[in-house]
Amino acid sequence: MSPEDLQILLEEKLAHCQVSVDGDGYKYEITVISDEFEGLNPVKRQQFVYAALNDKITDGSVHAVTIKTFTQAQWAQQQS
To answer: What's the chain's average pLDDT?
Structure first.
């Protein structure tokens, strides 16, 4: 699965999120930005994203992922 295909899939499943995917078709780095993460601890944020990936992990299309999650405010602070 290409990073572009994975990004499209995640954008469909995580409709209220900004998604960025980088990778080589085997290992992916996923960044998700959403105010839906407000008040969630890091584990809950990861679970939120993994839920959208579960089918692709199960069928072997996605093997390894690194997930970074931010609220809009955290992302803005990260970029400054």
So the answer is: 95
Q: Which two tokens stand for residue 61?
A: 């299309």
pLDDT digits (tens, 9 = 90+) for 7-26: 999 999 998 999 999 999 88
Separation CA 56–CA 65 (nearest Å):
11
CATH number at residue 7: 3.30.300.90
Q: Angle 3-13/42-58 helices, nearest 10 degrees?
A: 120
Domain that holds residue 45: 3-79
CA–CA gap between residue 26 and residue 38 (Å, rounded): 30
List Cα–Cα distances, 23 to 37, 53, 71, 77, in angstroms.
24, 15, 22, 25
58 bridge partner residues: none
